[in-house]
Every structure is written in C-alpha cells, then in structure tokens.
Target: Sugar phosphate phosphatase
Amino acid sequence: MAKPPASLSGQDVGSFAYLTIKDRAPQILTKAIDTLHRHKSEFFEKYGEAGVEAEKKAISLLSKLRNELQTDKPIIPLVEKCVDTDMWNQYLEHHQSLLKESDETPRWFYSPWLLVECYMYRRIHEAVIQSPPIDDFDVFKESKTQSFFESQESVIALCTYLQELVRTIEDLDENQLKNEFFKLLQISLWGNKCDLSLSAGEASSQKTNVLNSLQDLKPFILVNDMEHLWSLLSNCKKSEKTSIRVAIVLDNSGFELVTDFILADFLLSSKLANEIHFYGKSIPWFVSDTTVRDFNWLIDQVKCSNHKWMSKCGVDWENDVKMGRWVYHDHIFWTLPHEYCVMSQVAPDLYAELQKAHLILFKGDLNYRKLTGDRKWGFSIPFHEALNGFHPAPLCSIRTLKAELQVGLQPGQAEQLMASDPTWLTTGKYGIFQYDGPL
Ligand SMILES: O=P(O)(O)OC[C@@]1(O)O[C@H](CO)[C@@H](O)[C@@H]1O
Ligand SMILES: [Mn+2]
Model:
C-alpha cells in the first residue's frame, strides 16, 4: 500500500490547524486558568489553605504550558505517573526518532496537529492531577453544564417527540420506521455542531427546535449513507439475531449527548438493536467531550426535570443502564494521540470489543480526524482507503466538518463547495454520514 500523505500541522501558516494552535488553544488555556481562579473560595471551603495552594499550583502549571505553546517550545515528556504516561512518552519518543535526521524536536507549530492538540489536553489533565487535593476537578465541567442548560427548550422538544414516537412505534410500517430512524440520525448529526472547543469554550448550545430544521439542513449533508445503516440494521432485525449490538463512540456532552441518547432509545424501542455500548473519555478532553461523570450527570438532570416527558426519558435511560441494555465503557486509548489504524496493535482489547458490534457509530470531528489519521488526503479518495486498515466492524462517521479534512467526495464536489463557500470545511455547517463496511 502507498505511504499515507503527510499530517495536518501548524507548519502550514494560515491553515485551520495553525490558527487553532495559535489562537484557540491559548484561549482555552486562559479560560481554564480563569475557571480555577473563580473556584478559589470553593476550594478554600472544601480543603482550607491546602485547597488555595493547590489552585495556585494548577494555575502556575497551566500558565507554563501556555507559555511553552506560544513560544513553540519542544514537546516535553509527561512526568506524573498514570496508567497512560508510558504510552504517551513512548509515542513522543517515537516522533522524536522520526525527526533525528533533521535535528528537529517535536514542537507545537511543527509536529502533527493531532498530536499537539491531544497533548495539550493531556497536559491540562497533568496540571490538575499534580495539584491535590483539587486533583479531580474538571476545568471544563462548567462549560458543559452551561451548554446543556442553554439547550433546555430543544431538549424538551426532543424528549416529547421521542415519547410520542415510542408510544405508537408498534403501529408504524417499515417505511415510517425508516423515516423516523433517518430523522433521529440527522438530529444526532446536527447535535455535533454544538462542541465547545471550536468556540474556544464559549457558549455553544441548541436554542431552536432542530426537528423543524431538518428539511432545510438536508442540502448540507455532503455524504449521505443513511440507507446503508438502515439496510444493515433492518436486516439484522429480520434475521432475528438474539443480540444486535450498536456501539456509539461518543463525542460531546450537553446537547449532543442528549441527541445520542434519543437515537439510542429509538434503536432499542424499534428493535433495530438490543444493546447499545457507549464509549466515552476517561479524562476531560477537547473541552466538551463526554466523561463517565458527564454521562451520569446528564441522565440525572433529565430525570429530575419537572417536564413530564423529559423526566420520563431520564427514568427510562437510567433503567436502560441498570438493566445492561445501555453499557458505558471508557478506555485510555480514546485519549491517546494515536490514529485508529494502530488500535489493533496499541489497544487490542478495545479493538476486540469493537469487533463485537454489528455497527459502530463514530460521533464528531475528532473521531473523524483519528479515523483518517488527520492527514492531507485528496477529497475524493475512498473512505475505506483513508481508514488505512481500521475495519473492526461496519462503521459510520456522523460528523459536522470542523477540520480541513474530508474524503470520499464525488469528483468536482469539493471544488464546487470551495467556490460557493470557502469556509465549508471548518464551520460545522456541513455534515456527513460516511459508512464503511459490507454493502
Ligand atoms: O470532535 P468535535 O467535538 O466534533 O470537534 C472537535 C474540534 O472542535 O476540535 C478541534 C478544534 O480544536 C477540531 O478538530 C474540531 O473542530
Ligand atoms: Mn468534542
């Protein structure tokens, strides 16, 4: 197989990668510092003077990190011993060894964007865990919570819609069921517009009822493989398999996670699946990504709502978890900088787990970058080729475009988009359902 193309990187001045490292990353660090500041009295109340000292330490570590980034210093190894520290440091060494010839060292604006961006979030985590007793503080929790509360109206609309649908689901014919499936897939796609790292942690929520906008948003779906997903799951259902397992590799908490839960609930209620396995992050990640705490917090919030249908959803979802129909997993691989084509070597247990699924849905932009290695692929090379050997089970990326990377387009499609909207790759305005697997 030909060598894959070069990685996206901050070396390309003016590129989205470059601008993310130059502008968005320092803003995210500043916001994290500010959040710690604002919680000072809370730390004091909880831990006394030790809490205040810890807050100072975490802030000084984050300020140092911001300075390293802004002055393009070498990427240094992690120091605090954790389950993933050796793997991280080995990966950094590996990158160092690739550069031996040229006398370079891995640096913020020089190394692959995927590596340095993941590294920044891993260093934020290191700063916090090096600062006990506040070492389990999530600097992004507030933004995630805010994005959920600001989307309340949409959440209520979706929960009400779902409850009505589930009540009459037995009466739907094949075609109606398929239409509902497509609707909820699109809700989950557009839910991905609401991530917080693109807006540098500023509010990003869903204020309008997205159900009413689906028709208008259709032209913005650049690759639409929803039919394949329907064929796959409806054939599984017809073959009366004892278990149909769908894996959802989660992205953002808040509104997007609600849309994923709505889809998951529908998959079970329609018997298109009978087990949903969710994969989340084990540490705070890319501002808004879902951790187990966010997962449980959200179900709790939905349950405690005083809106009848919203709270019914929360009760059902909590029950799905209790009964093992919904299973949450985390694995350190999701917060390593590796592209997914090396998962079978780096995390064979996770790869084997994913192989058990009949379908894997990968939510969001970062998952797409890792699926395709975050490389400068041509716009029309096949998705299968960009996956570079990563085929644990039939899979589909559900993502709005927020990075200068897209494969599998029709010849001429990218050129047309570029002419009509030069920002098409990075604003989250366009989306895809891109499938790879047997047809
Ligand atoms: O994975 P998500 O939540 O859809 O997006 C993550 C993201 O905002 O982070 C990076 C910018 O910092 C971009 O790759 C991408 O747009
Ligand atoms: Mn995200």
Summary: The radius of gyration is 22 Å. The first strand starts at residue 221 and ends at 224. Residues 20, 24, 117, 192, 195, 197-198, 251-252, 286, 364-366, 369, 402-403 surround 1-O-phosphono-beta-D-fructofuranose (ligand 1) (CB under 6 Å). The mean pLDDT is 95.
